Known about the structure:
By secondary structure, this protein is an alpha/beta fold. It has helices spanning 18-27, 39-49, 57-61, 74-81, 105-117, 130-136, 147-157, 172-200, 205-212, 220-230, 240-257, 262-276, 288-292, and strands at residues 8-12, 31-35, 52-53, 66-69, 96-99, 121-124, 127-128, 139-143, 161-166.
Amino acid sequence: MSQSAVKQVAFIGLGVMGYPMAGHLAAKGYQVTVFNRTQEKADQWMKQHGGKSAPTPAEAAAGAQAVFACVGNDDDVREITIGSDGAFHGMSDNAIFIDHTTASAEVARELYDAAATRGLGFLDAPVSGGQAGAENGVLTVMVGGDQAVFDRVSAAIDSFARKLELMGPVGNGQLTKMVNQIAIACLVQGLSEAVNFAERAKLDVNQVLDVISKGAAQSWQMENRGTTMHEDKFDFGFAVDWMRKDLGLCIAEANRNGALLPVSALVDQFYSEVQSMGGGRWDTSSLIRRLRRS
Length: 294
């Protein structure tokens, strides 16, 4: 199967990320069959983008040359691949499964082996860029897997990517995403402290952010979350519950490889405090709220 031969695809999981990602595939001319546990969401997607839906992952995957997925966690990925109605049971020989879920490197390697025994390709391909990146088709996609498999589906993945990179063998996509989440979590805590400090110093916070964002303190988080932090707005973006799940993966992997994550572990506990405040679905920038309690 060449790159140009990939026309019929499936997408499993139409959450805040998967819904627009599948939409970009349809907009690029791919024939898309979707599966979502809530049929109403699949119906909504078809009304907006066309395509078809199927009642199980296996039926969605039948005849697809590439099957994309973006679900919740390791167990969800296992269920939609090797579960009783999983996609692996419906995929044709030589088809490729691309998992965009942020999951463990261990489950990626497990499913790579399971796919290989069935004559299937497998890539772990977590993404960064959040809901806005998915909607605008400018995600960063970090991929683990075989070069030949990657080459066959890279054009399709490019439908919703600004940056697409093969990071090495299977599992390396997930490990790279862990690096990403470690950096973000620690940075958001620093930005929270900075904004809180500026507020208590009676500075014009928006002016401060504008000035320092032109220097060495600049970051995506500062540009996109600094002002909303100051305005105490958190009903959007990447949820605290999801970040805690991701940090759990990071800490578990660090325990295996010997890396020290003292600040990440501390920020993880700070996020648990935000959850106890009722903020499980607030954006991760809500870390500042625990500072405002003091």
